[in-house]
Amino acid sequence: MSEAKHPIEIHGLSVSYGSKRVLTNIYLQIEKGSLVGVIGPNGAGKSTLFKSILGLVEPNAGDIKIFGEEIRAQRKRIAYVPQRDDVDWSFPATVMDIVLMGRYPHLGIFQRIGQQDREIALRALQDLGIEAFRDRQIGALSGGQQQRVFIARALAQQPDIFMLDEPFVGVDITTEEKIISILKAQADAGKTLLVVHHDLANVRTYFDSVILLNQRMIAYGKTDEVFTDQNVALAYGAQLTILHKTGMIGR
User: Fold this and answer.
1) Which domains can be identified in the chain, with CATH numbers?
2) Which of 24, 19, 76 has the alpha carbon at shortest distance from 48?
3) Which residues lie below 8 Å from residue 3, measured CB to CB, with a gap of 6+?
4) Among candidate residues 42, 41, 69, the one with its CA nearest the CA of residue 55
5) Which of 47, 48, 79, 163 might form a disulfide with 159, Cβ 3.0–4.6 angstroms?
6) Vertex 48, ends 240 and 232: CA angle to 5°?
7) What are the angstrom distances between the C-alpha of 161 and each of 5, 37, 83, 87?
8) Measuring CA to CA, how many Å separate 97 from each of 102, 137, 152, 156, 162?
């Protein structure tokens, strides 16, 4: 049997937290090998979309397929980098310990981390420029360094789908450029990447395609076609004036 054409397919997804509707009737077909920006204001449902795809929240309605199957059958093919606020940074683990966690989905029940796993993890650390921190406690690093560790863990997993929730928060511009270069290389290698991103000024530079979201789907498609002032206005509403003043759109 041939594999499904789209790595991620979403049909009619709706999600509520109690009486509050967060996502309404979302339809998506994500293309293989694409680097997709997920764009929208605070409270738009971007993180909820990710958690729905990962099976971490129960939808009210809708169907999600990963390579044509339920998430439980394809979970190891997805690497997830959560928001920094969702991580317990006091957890007593070294940087290498964290990155090696990316190898766990590839291990059998009684299989232990081996030399090949360690080499893959070390390469991921080197790609992010943090191999010198391999023996440090994760809580002792700066925010930007911690972010790079979790991206290294995702690389070490060698997934087919990357899902990164605001990976550039807390990193300097040099690190951000290094990370986006790595993500683009993964897309060029046929991997599929979804990235929640809030800085609208560089959306056109960073992403092949864009999802504009505000509880419902505003637009989805090639960045040059759908990332327009009109669609941004529909997504951000009253925040649009602030975005213009800060130079985050209209460039």
Assistant:
1) 8-245 (3.40.50.300)
2) 24
3) 67, 68
4) 69
5) 79
6) 20
7) 14, 14, 17, 21
8) 9, 9, 11, 12, 20
For the beta carbon of residue 138, count every other beta carbon within 10 angstroms: 23
How many helices (H) does the chain have, and how many strands (E)? 10, 9
d(CA 89, CA 77): 25
Query: Are 138 and 91 contacting, i.e. CB atoms less than 8 angstroms apart?
Result: yes
3-state helix, strand, coil in the chain (%, to 5): 45, 25, 30
Query: What's the pTM value of the predicted model, to 2 decimals?
Result: 0.91
Residues with Cβ within 8 Å of 40's Cβ and at least 6 positions away in sequence, in order, are 46, 212, 213, 214, 218, 235, 236
Distance from C-alpha of 111 to C-alpha of 66, rounded to nearest angstrom: 26
